[in-house]
Amino acid sequence: MQEVTMYSTHTCPYCVQARRLLAEKGVVAKEIHVDEEPGKLREMIDITGRRTVPQIFIGATHVGGYDDLSALARAGKLDPLLAAA
């Protein structure tokens, strides 16, 4: 299973939903809390070009935010992406 990394905050409702969806798939994401480590927010923006959380990576693939993750799940594309070696 691919490693999942998620830039997040503790209070973001979309981060909570992303955690829940990933947990349903048996995945615990490695979280980088941008509200605890201010330099990580700049890192996230530099890497993704986006300022909102969550920003989710499956392996080296930038999935995007919760809406993007949810769309992958609805389209049946999330499981294969998680399983890719």
Features:
single chain; 85 residues; alpha+beta; Glutaredoxin; four-stranded mixed sheet; 20% strand; globular; cytoplasm
Commentary on this structure:
With about 80 residues, the protein is of the alpha+beta class. The protein has one domain: Glutaredoxin. About 45% of the residues lie in helices and about 20% in strands. It contains 4 helices and 4 strands; from the N terminus they run E-H-E-H-E-E-H-H. The protein has helices at about 15-25, 40-50, 65-75, 80-85, and strands spanning about 5-10, 30-35, 55-60, 60-65. Strands 2-1-3-4 form a 4-stranded mixed beta sheet, sandwiched between helices. The longest helix is centred in the first third of the chain and has 12 residues, at about 15-25.
Concise synopsis of the structure shown:
The chain is an alpha+beta fold and 85 residues long. The protein contains four helices and four strands; from the N terminus they run E-H-E-H-E-E-H-H. The chain has one domain: Glutaredoxin, CATH 3.40.30.
What's the structural blueprint in terms of helices and strands?
Blueprint: E1 4-8, H1 13-24, E2 30-33, H2 38-48, E3 55-58, E4 61-64, H3 66-74, H4 78-83
Parallel strand pairs: 1-2
Antiparallel strand pairs: 1-3, 3-4
Order of helices and strands: EHEHEEHH
Tally of helical segments? 4
In what range is the share of β-strand residues?
Answer: 15-25%
Going by CATH, the homologous superfamily would be: Glutaredoxin
Q: How does the major sheet shape up?
A: 4 strands, mixed
Q: Trace the largest sheet across and list its strands.
A: 2-1-3-4
Which structural class do the helices and strands define?
alpha+beta
Number of strands: 4
CATH topology: Glutaredoxin
* Shape-level CATH architecture: 3-Layer(aba) Sandwich
N→C terminal distance = 7 Å
What value does the Rg take, in angstroms? 12 Å
CATH structural class? Alpha Beta
